């Protein structure tokens, strides 16, 4: 499930200008910093949407284990290997990330899109989404890009709609520690 806390450029004054961001591919050495940002983003984006217990102590450790596994496992063929896109300011300060998973039936799943809390609304999410679309077009020509987002995460839903995502499905997801929650799927047919 993907989530974003980004909106159009109206973020905090200390947010980086999207034009000054660099996007790079991440790897195993980035697992800890990505896990921390992931947990912090969940705690802010999902507050009031999922039970507080799902966002409580242990979340950093859970995300750490997830990212350590994701970034060290051998996926086999390069075409099946996920990509971690990192958005950084000058000096390597991580401000957001996206995780792309090629699916066996053709689409590419944007499984995570997170912006550092406090920097949302500055265009970082849009830069990451553009980079995800470009990566998909380059590495999986013709494949659609899709993502899933909690229905009640209104900020993220509005962001994906502003960015041209087409709502292609409504369903349910099993959210860790929260059970079944309603979600939407958004698709970009031509990344």
Name its key features.
seven-stranded mixed β-sheet, single chain, alpha+beta, 191 residues
Q: Name the poorly predicted regions.
A: 4-9
According to DSSP, the number of beta strands is 7
The description of the largest β-sheet is: 7 strands, mixed
Overall geometry comes to: globular
As laid out across the biggest beta sheet, the strand order is 1-2-3-4-5-7-6
Q: What is the average of the pLDDT values?
A: 91
Q: Structural class per helix/strand content?
A: alpha+beta
Strand content: 25-35%
Q: How do the SSEs run, as a string of H and E?
A: EHHEEEHEHEE
Q: Which radius of gyration do the C-alpha atoms yield?
A: 15 Å
Note the total helix count.
4
Distance from N terminus to C terminus (CA atoms, Å) equals: 19 Å
Question: How does this structure look, described?
Answer:
- The protein has 191 residues and is an alpha+beta fold.
- It contains four helices and seven strands, in the order βααβββαβαββ.
- Strands 1-2-3-4-5-7-6 form a seven-stranded mixed β-sheet, with helices on both faces.
- Helix 1 (31-45) crosses helix 2 (59-70).
- It starts with 21 loop residues before the first strand and ends with a strand.
Give a short summary of the structure.
Helices cover 27% and strands 28% of the residues. It is of the alpha+beta class.
Mind sketching the topology for me?
Blueprint: E1 22-25, H1 31-45, H2 59-70, E2 83-88, E3 94-102, E4 108-115, H3 124-139, E5 145-150, H4 154-162, E6 166-175, E7 179-188
Parallel strand pairs: 4-5
Antiparallel strand pairs: 1-2, 2-3, 3-4, 5-7, 6-7
